[in-house]
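worker-03 picked up job from queue 'complexes'. Input manifest follows; two sequence lines, order preserved.
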Amino acid sequence: MKTESRVLAPAAPLETTALARRRDRSATFAFWVFVAPLVLGLTIFTFVPIVWGLLLSFSRARGTIHPGAWVGISNYTSMLSDSAFRNSLVTIVIFAIFIVPLTFAISLGLALLVNMAGWGRGIFRTVFFIPTAISYVIASLIWRMEIFLGLPYGLANMVLGKFGHTAISWIATAHPPWYWLVLVTVRLWLQVGFYMIIFLAALQEIPRDQYEAAFVDGARRGWSTFRNITLPGLRNTSIAVLVLSIIAAFQAFDEFYNVMGGTQASSGNISLARPPLVYLYQVAISNLDYGRGAAGAFILTVLILLVTFGQARILGFGRRA
Amino acid sequence: MVSLPSTARRERVANPARTGRLSRARLSGLIGTIALYVILIVLAALFLVPFYLIVRNALMTQPEITSFTWNWLPKSAQWQNFRDLFRDVPMGQGLKNSAIIADVTFVFQILFASMAGYALARIPARGREVVFAILLSTLMIPTAVTFVPTYAVVSYLGGVSTLWGIIVPGLFSVFSTFLFRQFYLDFPSELEEAARLDGAGYFRIYWSLLLPNSIGIIVALGALSFIFSWNSFLWPLVIGQEPSSQTVQVMISGFLTAQTINLPELFAGAAVAAAPLVILFLILQRYISEGVRLSGIKG
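worker-03 finished. Artifact:
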């Protein structure tokens, strides 16, 4: 913001007002040319859909994407009283309660371990980070068809078999809900490396002399330096990791769809753990009820915003930085 | 700040005098190092297991995979699994679609974001603050949730079952725009002034001064964008309703959720879909880490 006034300042007094105005106009022209693709694109594919979606959510829109058959808020009341939709909200909250703290603890732990390593640090960093290159579809495939395959030749059941345990049907069992183990571990494998990289960068920005001063005071590497120097130094990064991982968790779709089986209620076990996006997919894309689908999307958006802001309030403003 | 354990201090002072013999402090340091590496190696092995399983199963026969005794390696590598895969499913089409989508997204998303980022950082114009505020507000919208309304618009425009319907809504990244804006704000203004004195306008300055000097951030954000669009699933699933517009992820998912499954071909498909990205990742890892770090700062 400051820089361009510096660019213009030296020349300004010499210019006539007409020249300055022409220059002003050319700057405005250039500005709009440069932002035009982004602004146009966002208008068509973000702002128009929001308005269109709002109109749809107040319309009876079955098998049509055109709003107009106004039904008031009945799509919203119908979604909120739909036990399948409410269950999907419960499912995603449970998922977030598992995945967010685990992601936080494991990615921070990996960052600390890798940061401590001298020899081979780069290799370990790469190994933990590389799952970022793999898609949820492929990871779900490995988890479902090999690691947690419900048949005796799946990897987890092979290991159980070595201890004389019978095979477990990991994905299709309702009680106990072993499928949570599958869904949580697949996301952990995919995303902890990503957050580890963020933590590693932040760890390297903590000034070394803070530790050195503590060592001179007689502190040893360990819990007290971690609590008094490392953790406060990671404050902002921790908030960023929590916010990013919560928003991502609430929008989970890929691993639920692919691990629990397609969207047809008849095939697969999706009804055991169906997150909101999978349910919205079924309502809007499979059953062509765009009105209820749009209403559900807005309800979920409000929920995500509430959780994000609520969390920012607790973490961001509750304590002094 | 930190309490003073006096024994620790004495040990530290005494250490240099005891060279040659293994002091208690050095021994515990050694044990700590060994423990660290044992933990790291075990964890690294666990993280690599899924990669091993893809390769193993992609090169085995169905009876070998479903054998009740564990086989670490295939008796002989079944390369024809890959030939069968391309014969049985239109994998070539899926790979081509994914490559087109990821390439076009990468090029235009970065171009549009850097253009807008430059304008927001460097061109003084009326309305700039308003544009910035409006863009900022879009960051609050959870992107995946909007798939239902966006589907209505893309469907209205005739984009269902087309590649452009998958690509175009993903070309406009406010997130990357802000990272570019930050980058251009930090760009030394002296260079820009010198170019201006030479008579260069905003377009020349952007194209021949700023863009060539942002290769690092372009590769960092571009690689992340490429990985993200190659691996994305929900939107290509919603739009790619016919094989001609299906990505490799959608094809493998269809394969996975089908009733009858040929395991070797399934894993061969996973290997084919994952290999390009793993290679890209290993080559560009330094830049990708930088992109991730930037995401963390902005997030």
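worker-03 released lock.
Chain B has two domains: 21-80, 81-298.
Chain B touches chain A through 115 residues (CB under 8 Å).
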